[in-house]
Amino acid sequence: MLKKWSRLRVGPRTMKTALAVTLSIIMVSFYGSSTSNLIFATIGALSAMGATFKESVSSSVSQIAAVVFGALAGVLLLSLHLPPLPASGIGVIVVITFYNLLRLKISPTLACIVVVTICNLTSTTPFVYAMERIWDTAIGLLVGMLINLFIFPYDNSKQIRNTIYRLDKELILYLEDMFDGDENLPNVNKMVTSLDEINHGLKIFSDQKLLYHRKKQRNDLHSLWDCEEKARQLVLHLEILSALPFPGVLNPYNRERLERNGAKIRDQRIPAEPSELDVVTNFHVSQVLDLRRELINGLREN
User: Which of 127, 150, 173 lies at the terminal end of a domain, its last residue?
Assistant: First the structure.
């Protein structure tokens, strides 16, 4: 129950979004508040609150383009002197067809709203309405972009590091399971999932623009990609271990290293003349432990 209620936490991004919407509404209200002013300014502010700078810019460009295209389509349909109802239906078809033709991944919703509104205008000219909506949207986008960049800029590097530390804990559990005294080999899928999360998080981090710490961001990104590469190599060695018919016997050096790293080894087999399986097992265990040391050192130095 407590875990369920913990999701109701109001985070910085939620507060930033509310602030962007509020400021956008205040700004557009200076030249006459109307429903359209508020709606388009709000849409602009919300669209600019992407997790990364690249995402925010892409969303802002798509919103402005949607308003412009919807306005042009609406003006064109009005020039044909069609009644409002059929003009609205044809306008929606035109917009959606155009988006599909260009294989745009963005939603045509805003462009459809603009074209339908223009087709049903009674109080102002289409050109004036179009320019006002472009202006309202631009204000919302600008306010949202500035707030997104300068107030609590999104930084997921901490989450990436936490995922790497989680992978490290999974690694110790994996090695304990491998050398628990039976011939059953553990599954590496959990660590592969963690590795995918690290990779996905780094792609997001690489799209961020932390203006105050640009040099630090580059250094962090380089360091974290280096950690990701070591983690990938580490998981590759574990996958090879998982493909063995059964675990080989640990040599004293690797046993001591594993125990020093916190693993509880219950396999009591005594090393004798090493078999090929023992050699392969100890090689990959040694590589895993070397990579783990480099991985943890890389995180601590950053």
Answer: 150
